[in-house]
Each structure stands twice: as C-alpha cells, then as structure tokens.
Write a structure and sequence with these properties.
- It is a single chain.
- The chain is mainly β.
- The protein has a single domain, classed as Immunoglobulin-like (Sandwich).
- Helices cover 6% and strands 28% of the residues.
- It contains two helices and seven strands, in the order βαββββββα.
- It starts with 34 loop residues before the first strand and ends with a helix.
- GO terms for molecular function: dynein intermediate chain binding; protein-folding chaperone binding.
- This is PIHD3 protein.
- Belongs to the PIH1 family.
- InterPro entries: DNAAF6, PIH1D1/2/3_CS-like.
C-alpha cells in the first residue's frame, strides 16, 4: 500500500477533486431555478440539401451548448454568472444554480442574453471536445 500524499491524513489528492467543487455550498438556502440544456449546430444549404459535410443530427455534430435558465422576478443587474471549462455557476438574490456541464466548453467564447419579457437567461457556450477536428476541420 503506497500513500501518494505527503500528509498521511489526507484522503484524496487535489487532482482527484472534480472541477467546480469549490463552488459547492450545500448550506445555501436559495432554490435552484428551472433550466434546460440544448445543443445547437451551424448548418448551411450544403449540409441540409446536398449532404456534402459529415454532419448528422446527433449532439456529436453540434458546436454550441445553449442553457436556458428561468429566472422569474429577476433583474439583469442581479445576475452573477461565472463560467469555467466544465462548470456554470449562476447566482441571483433568490436563485442559485451550480451546473456541471455535460462536456467541456471554451469559457472565453460564451455569450449570454437576458430576455426580460420571458424572464429567461440564455447562455450559449462553444463546446471544446477532443475530436472536434474530425467534424469541424
């Protein structure tokens, strides 16, 4: 039996802790808002009518992930949003959402818009997957 850590009381290495766990705070009483995750792909006429690319309807051929979060009775100025490669952290005075994303994203190339009439925050994130060069060369 070999212990990797210098401190023998530690039960895991820092490499074993998943990204985003620093945001976890179970004591926070704010409720989680309703949300949905959609996948979006950019297609042109060569894809739709001629089938010239290798794209199909699967999520493997999608470039973007769209997360729609319902935020009733919320002002745009009250929204705090932090995006990491695998984690979305959203906080408002009434709601809190810590979402571990289904695949890694480019945290620098995302965009968000708040649709005040629908009380909906729409976050679009560009996915970064290991073999995207096959689909999107």
């Amino acid at each position: 039996f070999h212990v990797k850590s210098e401190n023998k009381k530690t039960i895991w290495d820092t490499e074993e802790v998943p990204e985003g766990s620093e945001f976890d705070d179970t004591w926070d009483p704010r409720e989680q808002p309703e949300y949905e995750i959609l996948f979006k792909q950019q297609v042109g006429t060569e894809d739709v009518f001629f089938g010239m690319s290798r794209k199909d309807v699967s999520t493997a051929c999608c470039e973007d992930m769209v997360i729609k979060i319902k935020l009733p009775e919320t002002k745009f100025s009250d929204i705090a949003l932090d995006i990491q490669d695998k984690v979305l952290d959203l906080r408002t005075p009434q709601k809190k959402l810590l979402l571990h994303l289904p695949c890694p994203v480019d945290s620098k190339k995302g965009k968000a818009r708040f649709l005040s009439e629908e009380e909906l925050l729409e976050v679009t994130l560009r996915m970064t997957r290991e073999f995207d060069f096959i689909n999107f060369a």
